[in-house]
Amino acid sequence: MSTNLPVPLELEGDTDLILRQVLSDVLGLSAERVADLDHDAGLFGHLPELDSMAVAGLLTELEDRLDIIIEDDEVDGEMLETYGGLLSYLAAKRNEG
Amino acid sequence: MLTGSWPSPAGGDEFALSFDQQRDKRVLVIPALFDESNKLRHFTVEVMRRLDTGGVDSMLPDLPGTNESLAPLTEQTVSGWRAAVEAAASHFKATHVLTLRGGTLLDPGTLPGLRYASVGGTALLRGLVRVQLLSDKEADLTTTRDELVARAESQGAQLAGYDLGPAMVRELAEAEAPDGPATEVKQAEMGGAGLWLRAEPAFDADQADALAALMLEQVG
Asked: What is the ipTM of this complex?
């Protein structure tokens, strides 16, 4: 394993794992369903488990595990629309901090 | 499993679910708060069943304004709930406590036992406010967090479906578990994700086994 990976890439890899884990913990998705989520996979409006109550729990748990603060006015349909979109948002948040 | 009642300091009787055979070791179980209490109800009762099998009594009182209680939720406060928990501990002659999540905020601080995956009042309130903001957004209302918190603290508000009075909101914002002899148990010791996280209530027998085993160790 190379240890010369650029930091942002490594961070996104870690964020990807954590996001999959949190989706599994919050939505009770099976390991296969979580592993199948690709960049374009639909989240809010596509997964029946993900209602607004679940979104709130999801965001709070992501804040805890990623040590970030998600501003309420940044939460919208676009940010939550796809797996890739949410992942990019979270990775950017972590880079800020 | 028995149902019974206990006299609330606010007046009137409140319901309690109990496994009570007048044994020496008696655990007062303080439930998680708000929506988490629903998510963890099955888990909580299953832990109590295992304590019963292990020869230990346990009692799960309704906090005033919750579950079967006839008291209005809007009139409840953290300090009122603490007084209610102390009254229940005394009524049931509890020798130990098991507090879960937000229930840890109500630990009387005098009895040994366990605090399961405790959460502070600030974090609980933040979660309730977030649900309300998302719900407002779906209803095309443009509420900001600051506006909602200010309104809730001055006149009370419905947060995540719970009608909370201003005193409850203000006390919750600063509530922390009191010092006490009970030992903190982390979710990581349960061998799975916290069931309060689940969008749909779920149950995990292995986790109930794990928490009950730790509690029985405490009770000795």
From this structure: 0.79
